[in-house]
Write a structure and sequence with these properties.
Elements lengths: L16 E7 L4 H9 L6 E8 L7 H6 L4 E3 L8 H18 L4 E4 L8 H6 L4 E5 L11 H8 L3 E8 L9 E8 L6 H25 L7
Parallel strand pairs: 1-2, 1-4, 2-3, 4-5
Antiparallel strand pairs: 5-6, 6-7
The structure holds 5-O-phosphono-beta-D-ribofuranosylamine (GRF).
């Protein structure tokens, strides 16, 4: 059977895996990861990429002296070519920085199947719901509207679907009466900031065992 993921090597604190973090917005997850990496880990952030010139999270890259690149969508009409060109520019940066694993952290674009295939098993994402429930950009709203009593977050491998890749780990939070999108988002981000670096440790150290 095909292996579910293929990291290039088992990393260690002495030889950490070189990661790139992709962001589009506030970057609180990036900030949490960079704080975590203040202590030597089996992963180290070597590159930060934002498609959004105004992303607040860019600040964390600059403050930490990490190579930080803004790569907006090229200004061309053909949407397919635009995506492919955009990812081509990103890929050059990934190669230049010898990146081994891509960590999506609030990156608001869907990657093309060809990009995902090139990085097969080496792109992870965190999503603010218990997948497969509530994929997409309105996870909190959808969870509250559905009336579920529990939501949470999911760390998963990225495939060419929207929030459909293999689930690596999940954490739950309770939805309480009167919960708003904002309060739920705040609660979930708090646990995301703990679980994502921890799962990265396990993956990079080669200790990860998929959910049974
Ligand atoms: C997080 O809730 C994450 O689950 C989702 O996007 C949000 C990013 O927040 N994919 P931030 O930009 O890290 O603050």
């Amino acid at each position: 059977m095909e292996k579910p993921y293929i990291l290039p090597r088992r990393a260690s604190i002495d030889k950490p895996l070189r990661i790139a973090v992709f962001i589009s917005g506030s970057g609180s997850g990036l900030n949490a990861l960079l704080n975590y990496q203040q202590t030597p880990r089996a992963h180290i952030t070597k590159l930060i990429i934002s498609d959004n010139i105004n992303a607040h999270g860019l600040k964390y890259g600059y403050d930490n002296n990490i190579k930080t690149k803004i790569i907006p969508l090229p200004d061309i009409f053909d949407k397919n070519r635009q995506r492919i060109l955009h990812e081509g520019l990103i890929n050059i940066e990934l190669i230049n920085s010898k990146v081994e694993l891509i960590v999506l952290s609030g990156y608001m674009r869907i990657l093309t199947p060809s990009f995902v295939a090139k990085w097969k098993g080496r792109i992870i994402n965190i999503h603010p719901s218990l997948l497969p429930d509530f994929p997409g950009v309105h996870a909190h709203r959808d969870a509250i509207q559905s009336g579920v009593k529990i939501s949470g977050c999911t760390v998963h491998l990225v495939d060419s679907g929207v929030d459909t890749g293999m689930i690596l780990a999940q954490r739950e939070v309770k939805i309480i009466p009167g919960e708003t999108i904002q309060t739920l988002q705040d609660k979930i981000k708090k646990i995301e900031h703990e679980i994502y670096p921890q799962i990265l440790d396990l993956l990079c150290e080669g200790q990860y065992h998929p959910m049974s």
